[in-house]
Amino acid sequence: GESVGLHLPTLSVQEGDNSIINCAYSNSASDYFIWYKQESGKGPQFIIDIRSNMDKRQGQRVTVLLNKTVKHLSLQIAATQPGDSAVYFCAEKLSGTYKYIFGTGTRLKVLA
Amino acid sequence: DAGVIQSPRHEVTEMGQEVTLRCKPISGHDYLFWYRQTMMRGLELLIYFNNNVPIDDSGMPEDRFSAKMPNASFSTLKIQPSEPRDSAVYFCASSFRATNEKLFFGSGTQLSVL
Known about the structure:
The structure holds 2 protein chains of 2 kinds. By secondary structure, chain A is mostly beta strands. Chain A has strands spanning 10-14, 19-24, 30-38, 45-51, 56-58, 62-67, 72-77, 86-94, 100-102, 106-111.
């Protein structure tokens, strides 16, 4: 029979526009969050992180926002470039452990 | 630093055979993780070690899977006997908690069990 796999949501963005990728995390006690980028055939690569005592953190061209009330994390990429095309994962670290749980991922496609 | 090094990069084997995946973490890192990635289930944590000691192996799917870390610079994930449903990409990651908690991933081992 046909196998059912994860359906990765896809975000298509015009080159130069800003991208916003969203993630709902599962555990209200999670104390640390990371965004990873995964290109085809490669391992996940760290982009930016944020601790639960913060609600915003900025990096180079990227910003992470954390809303603990609704358990929501977002990654904003400014001036999206073709090299940003990849699958993006959020990960949460369970408080009191060193256990990271990954979201299902979002595919970002940058249109020229 | 060379980063997390995994070998082999690709492994094709027949059902019933033993498979051993290898990982060399970043030097000085005290945590090591094994993850499995499939289209069906995404990235799943299998097991993690702290200072070579297994801390949480609740993600190891069955007794057919075992992981060891004989020293700070080497870990193995073994599947015996392998089954077609074990086909996946297996990632190793390491981190150094004293300075930060980021996970650094290797390039993965693509395992195909026929």
